[in-house]
Specification:
The structure is a single chain. The protein is mainly α and 40 residues long. Helix content is 92%, strand content 0%. The chain is rod-shaped, with a radius of gyration of 17 Å. The protein contains one helix and no strands. It has one helix at residues 3-39.
Amino acid sequence: MDWLTYGILAAVLAFFFFMYLMLRRTFLGFREGLENSKEK
């Protein structure tokens, strides 16, 4: 494999990693909001 293939693979992996982080942060914030609304 040449460097272009490695570059594309690295870009795809980085994309999925950031998507996972954003989804996890959004989900945790959503769950936190639900718990805070239940307490009131």
